[in-house]
Design brief:
With 90 residues, the protein is mainly alpha-helical. Helix content is 48%, strand content 11%.
Length: 90
Amino acid sequence: MRYPLTTGRAAYLLGATEPQLSETVRRGKVRPEPLIVAGRRMWCAEHLLQAAEALGILTDDLRAKIEREAPTGAHGCRRTLPGGEVFGDE
């Protein structure tokens, strides 16, 4: 199972900086925002694709790399609480 990426790892994957990624979230370019767990954003493929598009760096090669490295869909971007309640629905 692949796990969501921290901002540092996401920035490395994209070839960007952490401040650049954080700015995409602050400016509303990444929706919904990545979950924050223990003070760290957890980036999934959907978030990374949006950020790369906003930064103008999205290529077919980068898209393939993101889809290979980062989790996609409900398993990577949602957490289920005991009792089946969804926390951080993405």
